[in-house]
Amino acid sequence: MKRTIIELMRTNVAQMQGYKSARHEYQGSAQVFLDANENPFDWPYNRYPDPHHFRLKRDLWKTIGWEMGKITLGNGSDELIDLLIRAFCVPGKDSIRVLNPSYGMYEVSAALNEISIVPTDLNEDFELEPDLSFLNNCLPSEKIFFVTSPNNPSGNAFHPALLEKIVKQYDGIVVVDEAYIDFSSRDSMYHLIDTYDNLVVLRTFSKAFASAGIRVGIALSSPLITNVLHKIKPPYNLSTLVMDEAIQVLQKYDRIKTQIHLLSADRDQLALDLQTLKNVEKVFPSDANFLLVRVKNAQSMYDYLRKNGIIVRNRNGQFHCDECLRFTVGTPVENKRLMEVLRNMETAENSN
Ligand SMILES: *Cc1c(COP(=O)(O)O)cnc(C)c1O
Fold this sequence. Notes:
The protein is an alpha/beta fold. The protein has two domains: 5-251, 3-Layer(aba) Sandwich (Aspartate Aminotransferase, domain 2); 254-351, Aspartate Aminotransferase, domain 1 (Alpha-Beta Complex), CATH 3.90.1150.10. The protein has helices at 5-8, 11-15, 22-25, 54-64, 76-88, 105-112, 160-169, 223-232, 240-251, 253-275, 298-307, 332-350, and strands at residues 71-74, 95-100, 116-121, 142-148, 173-177, 199-204, 217-221, 280-283, 290-295, 313-314, 324-328. Helix 4 (54-64) runs parallel beside helix 9 and helix 5 (76-88) packs across helix 6. The model has no long low-confidence stretch (mean pLDDT 96). The chain binds pyridoxal-5'-phosphate. Residues 76-78, 103, 148, 152, 177, 179, 204, 206-207, 212, 217 line the site of pyridoxal-5'-phosphate (PLP).
């Protein structure tokens, strides 16, 4: 028998009362607001922001179709990752499961909260074992499994049927981090939230939505989890400026979609171009807006690119990422420049 959401939750979190701000207690429209100790004169942002994020949630629903009751918004996904850990994991006692290799923020948040890590090692192609036998060896201390799909740094997305099997069988919360799903041909897991109350889907404004600077992350989940995240989040975690800007971005959703198509096509072209280089040993298949590339010598390629004004990510040292660099797909001009510099590097090496 799997534990219920309430059984998984920290007891103090389940029992506590959230902060009730002035704006929580009164939500209608009035003419005179004398409840929040604000400066009443006419400044652009003299009022506290809406702690429920109503207008932005409404526009996410209108634009993308996510039900408002399933949405929690955070100061980046990073805040939501931290809130999920704090809602379910008892410091010094509980643990989270993460893919190895994967995104580093889960471990940072876990460390800060004194939560230990249980890794699920991926194979050399960054895939899960199809029989998911690791699920038979989970610890009672495990509360959350962070599954990143498409994964970072590898770029591959897992098969939705495999992900559903994990959600169904794992005795804990399964957070499917879909930061890069817009670049993938795979479907989001969002439609399974009504079926599995332990499923959380993470999305972000930082990648495809071209808004990393405003810090908006999205958790999609069943009402039990939505409610607890709202209870424990800082009441005003998104500022009015940020929410206004996010609403503006959603109004340009068509342009975002065009850019996603362009970036996905350019990723595939860049993968082909990189494979023509002698210094490149392998370009891993990607469902994201970046490519993990195994090269002859990661450090020397990194240094050469940096000297030529191009910064990439050196992933050498991460599990199964020996001599791997991670290239974000840039504009067509930037990708062309990258290829030019890499070809120059080979010409220079040959003439030595
Ligand atoms: C970039 C990224 C995020 C985004 O985090 P934000 O805090 O929303 O910017 C989340 N998950 C993964 C796996 C990422 O690579």
